[in-house]
């Protein structure tokens, strides 16, 4: 009963669930480059990240099962994140990154299932598709950060080998996802290179499949004219 009440309350707050998720994702991506590396900056960034977790739970929590799964991953992700920042514990941050990666993986899967349903394409589904694309970038940012924790010096950052902070990991993930490749951050280890290849393939397939889905929403023009004139058989 309490779970259903919480889920309904979030659905009322985030009436256009995918739209608000898209807005929070853009806010995170835009703010991460302007927030300073100080304690106050890290706190501000984590407040935005907390809103992202809440918006993600609200967006995918359309059923009780999906809501519970998202909540069970979001709570420990938030807890270990603040624990790692409070005690300056890299291990707790790494655990938080893994929970966050699992949450955004499941969230992306649920969003794609929602978007590709064989029904009419609504504005909420379009924002859901855009949110899923950005979530792939956020998901891989946590994967890159986790790889950097377990395999130190996995990246060449502006000519120096080392690990990636979250801001750099998100920037690197977006450049890989969009196949931009500025070259200021490059993977060094096989693990990091392997994840880069998977993200590049995922981003390309996502755009191709989404275009095919949008093209399938409307019938061809010739078929539409035939049906309208009654010559379609």
Folded structure, characterized:
Helices cover 75% and strands 4% of the residues. The protein is mostly helical and 233 residues long. The protein has one domain (2-217): Helix Hairpins, CATH 1.10.287.70. A three-stranded antiparallel β-sheet has the order 2-1-3. The termini are far apart. Residues 223-228 have low confidence and may be disordered.
Short structural summary:
The chain is mostly helical and 233 residues long.
* Overall body shape: globular
Second rung of CATH, namely the architecture: Orthogonal Bundle
What is the SS-derived class?
A: mainly alpha
Largest sheet: 3 strands, antiparallel
| Residues in helices, as a percent range | over 70%
* Tally of helical segments: 9
Notable characteristics:
233 residues; mainly alpha; Helix Hairpins; three-stranded antiparallel sheet; 9 helices; 3 strands
Compile the SSE list and pairings.
Blueprint: H1 2-13, H2 17-31, H3 39-60, H4 64-87, H5 90-115, H6 123-150, E1 155-157, E2 160-162, H7 166-177, E3 185-187, H8 190-215, H9 221-229
Antiparallel strand pairs: 1-2, 1-3
Helix pairs in contact: 2-3, 2-6, 3-4, 3-5, 4-5, 5-6, 6-7, 6-8
